[in-house]
């Protein structure tokens, strides 16, 4: 089978617990265990590392609504961390593609609704000149792209927490695959930022 056309790097950025959870036993809003690690210097440095090469961001509806209600104001907050202010400016100016079955319009500048499902949308974006394409923590999109073999790089902040329940990213619908560790960076809170590259031999596990 021929491999997908690859001209831009698609990066899935997410946070995970030691037991593989992306939220806690109380549901998708149970993420308080992530906060101390996400606000660390190491996490901020890694976010800059991942996002600086990108020119397109993919967001689901919930993250779009949450991000658009918070991040645009951070750039002008003198008390905010300089990296947060830089991320705010970057996110405001970058091309944002939003996946939603309920939104009819987007008001955040440089944002637009996707007209196809994530796999087809990314396949089209690969043919448009630009930098990396980053999915910012929108798990439903990441899952669909993994199923479509359209993720080239995994950026995972692994928190030193056993959540004890909650949703897993890698459920039984995700096909087998090989990944190669491209980098790891410890943070002052004990979390580890991991960067995995998709192995050249795709859809095969030894």
Major sheet strand order = 4-3-2-5-1-6-8-7
The CATH superfamily name is: Dihydrofolate Reductase, subunit A
Query: What is the count of DSSP helices, taking H or I runs of 4+ residues?
Result: 6
Average pLDDT: 92
* Low-confidence blocks of residues: none
Number of domains: 1
Strand content: 15-25%
Task: State the distance separating the first and last CA atoms.
Answer: 18 Å
The amount of helix comes to 25-40%
Structural class: alpha/beta
Shape: globular
**H/E element order:** EHHEHHEEHEHEEE
> What is the gyration radius calculated from CA atoms?
17 Å
Largest sheet: 8 strands, mixed
Question: What are the defining features of this structure?
Answer:
single chain, 206 residues, alpha/beta, Dihydrofolate Reductase, subunit A, 6 helices, 8 strands
Outline the structure in words.
The two termini are about 20 Å apart. A hairpin with a 5-residue loop joins strand 7 and strand 8 (about 190-200). The protein has an eight-stranded mixed β-sheet with strand order 4-3-2-5-1-6-8-7, with helices on both faces. The chain has one domain: Dihydrofolate Reductase, subunit A. With about 210 residues, it is an alpha/beta fold. About 30% of the residues lie in helices and about 25% in strands. Helix 3 packs across helix 4 (about 80-95).
